[in-house]
Write a structure and sequence with these properties.
The structure holds 2 protein chains of 2 kinds. Chain A contains 3 helices and no strands. In chain A, helix 1 runs antiparallel to helix 2. By secondary structure, chain A is mainly alpha-helical. By secondary structure, chain B is mostly helical. Chain B has 2 domains: 80 residues, Up-down Bundle (Four Helix Bundle (Hemerythrin (Met), subunit A)), CATH 1.20.120.1200; 42 residues. Helix content of chain B is 74%, strand content 0%. In chain B, helix 1 runs antiparallel to helix 2 and helix 2 packs antiparallel against helix 3. The longest helix of chain B is centred in the middle third of the chain and has 26 residues. The chains are: A mainly alpha, B mainly alpha. Chains A and B meet through helix 1, helix 2 and helix 3 of A and helix 1, helix 2, helix 3, helix 4 and helix 5 of B.
Chain lengths: 100, 164
Amino acid sequence: MVSINQYLVLSAILFTLGVSGVLIRRNAIIVLMCIELMLNAVNLTFVAFARQHGQLDGHVVVFFVMAVAAAEAAVGLALVMALFRHKATVNLDQANLLKG
Amino acid sequence: MFQQLAFYSLATLAIVAGLFVISGKNPISCAIALVVTLGSVAGLFVLLDAHFIATIQILVYAGAIMVLFVFVIMLLNLHPDEMGPPQISPLKMVGCALAGAGSILLMLKFVKVGGQFPAVPPEYGTIEAVSIKLFTDYLIPFEVISILLTTAVVGAVVVGKRDL
């Protein structure tokens, strides 16, 4: 039978994929997608633990995480648009104005 | 038996599509792969009796957020050379490996709660049960979320203005 451990391992793998994407990709849009992937992996953990404990609090937290993810995507994509307007690129290595 | 089959097929689909998200060349195909991943995770939510969460996963993530991504990709109209392959350096590989080892170790060793899932009442995870929780115990966070969303929308409009 499938127990919580399988769900936790799957969630860890998805989170790792998200971290790797943020590290190796330089396209700002894809980096934002990888952040969504990480948030989703964490949501899976929340729901798995909620099921394990028979409580619904985890579902409510997932609801809040989704709202925050939507807000983050809206602001992040607006920032990508602003970056593209100023530099005509979405390559994060070229967004180095604050670099010392 | 059915649960096992469904879990492993959805998990494989999610991981393969996730690999495609971080390795795809074209942002649009990455976005489509991300939709597949989010859909598989929604299926896993159904397996975990989280019906309401699975529904809003499809509605909010695969619907609203991904449409936003696709719109931005379309608006930017990038040059093909900007969609180049991922840049992999040894240091980044070490970082990825450490992240993977750390999260899997955390899940396997530090969290020892295994065993079968307990039985839950039939109304577990339905919109009614979740919303009772949401509008009683979590009413104030819920209202704060509405302020956050308003702030985010205003911020996105201001940042997106032509003369920043």
